[in-house]
Write a structure and sequence with these properties.
- With about 325 residues, this protein is of the alpha+beta class.
- It has two domains: about 240 residues, Bira Bifunctional Protein, Domain 2 (BirA Bifunctional Protein, domain 2, 2-Layer Sandwich), CATH 3.30.930; about 80 residues, Enolase-like, domain 1 (2-Layer Sandwich), CATH 3.30.390.
- Helices cover about 35% and strands about 25% of the residues.
- An eight-stranded mixed sheet has the order 7-8-9-10-6-2-1-12, sandwiched between helices.
- A hairpin with a 2-residue loop joins strand 9 and strand 10.
- The longest helix has 15 residues.
- The chain is elongated and about 75 Å long.
- The N and C termini lie far apart (about 50 Å).
Amino acid sequence: MIVLHRPQTNPYFNLAAEEYLVKNTQEPLFMVWQNTSSVVIGKHQNTLKEINFPLLQEMNIPVIRRISGGGTVFHDLGNLNYSFINFGKRESLVNFKKYSQPILEVLQELGVNAYLDGKSDLKIDGLKFSGNASHVHKNTVLHHGTLLYSSELSILNQSISSTLKGIKDKAVVSNRSRVTNIQSHLTSLITLEEFKNKIIEHVSAKFNNCSFRSFSQDELTEIEELANSKYKSWEWNYAYSPRYTLTGKIRATNQNIPFQIEVKNGFITESFFDLGTSSDQMKMQTVFENCMYHASAIQKIYSKNKSFFEQLNIKETDLLNAFLNTSS
């Protein structure tokens, strides 16, 4: 087992590193790493259904999709992430108990009664402090999990509470749980860095012939390229969401206009607007045909058809609020 030193805290880089390593490593790996504030969603989730989009925009917190399944999690520098990459027969690769057990052992040594609850949650006194997920590539498994140590729980709870209602889809939905920080349950306070080192020491002792290494320059270059081309892209983080329908109302000066839009691969493929005349309705549908479901694209649509929207007493902020629950 190789313990890979990962001091990087850029969430785009770190999520790209997971994909790069599971596809390219020839050796079993263990890693403990951190991200600056970010929201990380599961591969098969609908981004807008999982996040507080206006808050994250206001706080400049990025949203990034990972390659593993499961639900949405919040990362900050009070949270540790741990990852195992291992090999084996495909049917036995995914094993939540096996890979979470070393973490539980460390906590139990610290006097914390932590346990695995259900398939993938680690809890203390009924409160969740870790979510886990896996991804299989050929005969290789990536198992990773969060460890809330001293995170900003108020920001966590707000950031993963969606304010955009009316979405219908078949996406994986997060199972919301009450959360806690590990630090709150320690009888003797230790720093996050000390906790991190205890985990590394325990895993190193548990697995025979452990050695340590850092990323090579070639690995750093390739991971940066993957981060820039994929993990920073709207196509991966938003448009990859499964097809969905959004229903709601656009607030206008004299009325509320009911609407329904279908979004596929990040673009509006069908739309209906309950307007007074068939000509207005057709015009509205034409305006949004194949429109990218993104604030900047909606703003361009509004600017290009401003006189039409003004005729309907619809402001740009009303349109953005209806479609994305944001006015900027």
